Please model this.
Amino acid sequence: MAQSFQQDCVELLGRRLAQGEISRRAWLAGLAALGAPAGLAQAQAGRPLVMVNWGGLANDGFGRFYGAPFTAANPGLAVTQDSTGPSAGRIRSMVESGRVTWDLCDSSASSAYLLGGMNLLTKMDYGIIDRTKVIGPGFALEYGAAPYSFSSVLAYDSSKFPTAPTSWADFWDLRRFPGQRLLRRDALGTLDAAMMSLGRAPDQVYPIDTRAALRRVAEIRRNTVFWSSGSESEQFLRTGEAVMGQIWHTRATVLNRESNGRIKFIWNQGLLQAGIFVIPRGNPGGANAQRLLGAMLANAEAQVGLLGLLGNGPTNPAAAAQVPAELKANNPTDPANERQQVVLNGQWWGANYQQANQDYLDTITG
Amino acid sequence: MMRREAGWYALLLPAFLLLSVFYVTPILQVLAISFLEPSPGFSNYERIGTNLSVQRVIITTLRICSITTVLALLLGYALSYTITLASERARRWWLLCVLVPLWISVLVRAFAWVTLLRRQGLINQTLQGAGVISEPLELVWNEFGIIVGMVHYMVPYAVLPMLASMREIEPRLLAAARGMGASRGQVFARVFLPLSMPGVVAAGVLVFIFSLGFYITPAILGGGKTLMVAEWISLQILDLIRWGLGTMMATLLVVTILVTLAVFSRVVNMRRLFGGA
Model:
């Protein structure tokens, strides 16, 4: 299974802590950033809410900083952590078994549409969650909402090219920019870039012409390696196995800092994505899960904290102005950066992910 | 006499019930999905004949596993032969060297191969430094890399059954053949090799079956460009949520393994293969 973005963030954060780049306090504050709830309604006492993360440090950090403040604001309502990794398949398995134990799962836009369409998720209650607290419609969906954002950007080794690549068209141009390419082993975000490389205007990427995009991927397949986890993507660029790649901006930021600017990335035509949380249908905590998610969306200050620590972009419209100057360059939702990117269309992907990704896998393994 | 045997079987009953309730039943339930989803019937199985993606993953897996088996048997045979003929003291060292890799995590071994085989890895840098090649060889992120990793993993599994079988060969038979005028080559080809064949077949079955389910090694060394069945099934179940297709492939894998075992159990002594007396 491909590693998810959230899983990768947790890993990245843990490494920074381990390398002493950040203090333990900063680490915990960052993990808290997604979810310190403010002004919650008094919740009735009941069984604990179960938040599902992708393991590692999130398990401790989310427990202490998602769970503890929530419990403080809502006496009698504890939050426990589960690090199983809420993949779409696992959520389906749990809901269909009829014994749901999860309340809030770190998921994705495409899974929200896919699972929502299969009647496996609870609809967002926008009476409880304030949908004006996000920067765009793609961040508050029918079946999920996003307290953070991330982007799939073009990163490259600047020592290998006299002129810098500026677009996906350059990425596909092996003659002007020779060298191994790096793409995610997942169609999501990749086919979107392929469409732009074919000259589709950024505001007309959707609907994706899957056939044309797949043919485009096939063109460079032999000169490309494919990553499935964030650390793998970083490693490919760091060790020179690839000289240009489409990777998550959090990893690109790390590489940029670590290589003293030799490995660069551009926001232009990056694919801005929503870090969507979903609530499985029949979750035991009921509406309390909505309250917790609503608080995560509303807390701009905490979202900025997370940006400083890990690079996850805030989704609260008030957050960008609070970002310290030195962090603005790495914030995907900074107005100057956001303008250059394309918001990934979760709805198109929700409807087409299964077939498009299978075809993509067939194309790259062909 | 009958009564006493029935008593022994009764002792097995708790373990049997435990396994069938908590192990076999859930597996059968999962495999049953392949007949129920997306619609009841054999539609998932029809895809073996019609769907290029399904066919490709099957063919890729069979190809990689066959090559791995052949190479592991060749290397394993040479090793077993050497160990059989070695002195008692040398034999102990040889065995240790064969067994040590078994205790190293498959993950560690895959990453070790990456460090050796990548473009700026040890092998390419050495060859480039020596002026043998000008461009790095593509040793990894392809099937070659996967096979290197898998053969490395499988050689000990090939050695052990073959070694057991070779050590049962009566040395006096070889001496007799020599005494009757056979050359060294003839002794090997006409006496030693035929007598060691049961071990070779057993090792081949073991290595092949083991290879079919490989997940980590191809995932790390394949560079995302090669999918074998295990990873393919995982993608269908967890990411693509096409459970009917995923469980169909799982069923196919289980059936293939059982059929392979059934066929070869007529040829070789399976008890010896799995460590029995």
About this structure: The CA atoms of residues 61 and 228 of chain B lie 5 Å apart.
